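Dear all,

This email documents one entry for the complex benchmark we are building for the journal club exercise. For each entry we list the sequence lines for every component of the assembly. Then comes the predicted three-dimensional structure of the complex as a token string, followed by one or two observations. Please use this as the template for your own entries, and keep the labels exactly as they appear.
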Amino acid sequence: MTQTAEAAEAEAAEPEQPPVDERVKERSKFHQALIRPELGGIAGTILVFFFFFLTARDSGMFSPSGVLNWSIVSAQFIIIAVGACLLMIAGEFDLSVGSMIGFAGMSIALLSVSLGWPVWLAIIVTFILCMGVGALNGWLVIKTGLPSFIVTLAFLFILRGLTIFAAITTTNKTIVGGIRDVAEGDWLAPIFGGKIFTGFFQWMGDAGWIETFERGTRKGQPVVEGIPMLIVWALVLVIFGHWLLTKTKFGNWIFASGGDARSADYVGVPVNRVKILMFMFTAFCACVFATAQVMEFGSAGADRGLLKEFEAIISVVIGGALLTGGYGSVIGAALGAIIFGVVQQGLFFAGVESSLFRVFLGVILLLAVILNTYIRRMITGEK
Amino acid sequence: MAEPIIDMRNIEKHFGSVIALAGVSVDVIPGECHCLLGDNGAGKSTFIKTMSGVHKPSAGEIFFEGKPMNFDSPRDSIDAGIATVYQDLAMIPLMSVARNFFMGNEPTRKIAGISFFDHQKANDVTMAEMKKMGINLRSPDQAVGTLSGGERQTVAIARAVHFGAKVLILDEPTSALGVRQTANVLATVDKVRSQGIGVVLITHNVRHAMAVGDRFTVLDRGKTLGTANRGEITPEELQDLMAGGQKLATLEGSLGGTV
Ligand SMILES: Nc1ncnc2c1ncn2[C@@H]1O[C@H](COP(=O)(O)OP(=O)(O)OP(=O)(O)O)[C@@H](O)[C@H]1O
Ligand SMILES: [Mg+2]
């Protein structure tokens, strides 16, 4: 009885509803959410935090210094993931990111410490050099028509070899220190190695909101001095990347170039320019990573950045981007990077054998790729 | 006769050892529909691609509005006011209909001096243009990959009509369309033509060609078999020419005249 009443009511209400296409089957909210590229990243992030909150709550992972610890690691991953993400959506890979990090760091160290250049000049020249290499990568990929996988694999070796060679021949060492001293008073160095809101954190420390050191030379200072510029860079790059990809004309070109370069070219998208610029942007991100790292450590090592290209690509894939290009999200990539950073540091806090991290990585990568393929089928209607 | 908008003279195109075009001359005058006809592999698509800047001709000259023109990329021809529906449509399956529609010609809106992709405008225009072509899109956010073949073709046509300011090139635009949509496309060609736009139409369907064509050029193995004006040629003659000059008579008998 009530059922028919309800049906009658529904019928009566019908004409007031806007005309809905009768061919659109009401898709469940879940289904709709699933075809957002960030979904995997969001679910994964929640899961990861939930897991560590249960298992490692008392380990200090969620104390101010613990949070800072995994935030910095995540921020590092985010910086290179943003570059890798836009490049992957544009349909290309850069396997030379890790070597580029070593190369950039060494370039800054040798130019400033060994050659005595001002640090700001060393940083600027290094950025130009690296973005030049990025452009060369892109140009070669376009001119030869080879997969970027091969071209940038070549640069993985070339850059690493050059870095070690330059370090050995000029200083006889593979680690060049002394950067902190020469960076003293430099105007550009703090943009990569500095901290912001230090006064605010001191105030919080004084007020007893966060812990302070109880003894030693830093007695009275808060355990977290401020927000490292590394985190600021990560945020800025994510915001910039997200804006570029989703809110601009150029973003549409990135999707188009990766989705089908030939079709994009036919309708007037400057595919080559887009791809070369994305290679340069990836190099820029690697350079930001390297400069911040050099400023933090006060030294450059010829072996820095090892395997970073894969970590970046994995973050991007966990974030929902398709390896084949044309689809993905910067927010997703950033969440992928956070998952990466939190798990890596969380296992450490939880006291789990660190080798298990690699197992975790492999498993999550596999799951992400399977999920992404499924989602792609759903978008393109193959399924 | 009016000045041609685009005049292609003795266009040749070689792909390595393959000679796809061996000197084809075609011109398009404002307000006409110039049909390009011919067998599979005759060189029709290759020819229109030299017109739209995709291929650089190996030899020959292109005059656009009377001036010699060298299109280095499709961008140049689009900027000159030439829009093309390619045989493979040039659509990106993973991207939404609206993003595809405006690909390469994105509308922007300035907020505080920064230029943003105007999604609202893109969506509205896409829906409106598709409606004009007789297709009610479910949503402008729908990925092109989920559209039917005909719907996809219609998006490509609507896009070209929207951006084709002077010349509209259609490479087999009706190959996947239903009766109603085909009629729509032919009506659109007629309308566009009356606005003074030059239309190049490639088709294998003689009835479609006869319905809207003002001139007919038949290509065969990279060469022109000739150009005929409307009224100077019968559908039967055209059909024979399109088959590469070979009589379809034997075939026609067994097919009961249905070709
Ligand atoms: N990029 C290319 N490389 C080599 N050969 C090509 C290329 N593009 C076209 N051809 C050759 O040029 C000839 C003409 O091809 P084209 O696509 O222009 O034919 P078409 O007239 O459009 O045929 P259809 O009616 O089947 O579309 C064919 O023999 C084809 O194999
Ligand atoms: Mg063709």
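Observations: The domain at 39-52+61-196+228-380 of chain A is CATH 1.10.3470 (ABC transporter involved in vitamin B12 uptake, BtuC). The interface with chain B takes residues 21, 23-24, 246-249, 251-253, 255-256, 259-260, 262-270, 322, 326-327, 376, 379-382 of chain A (CB under 8 Å).
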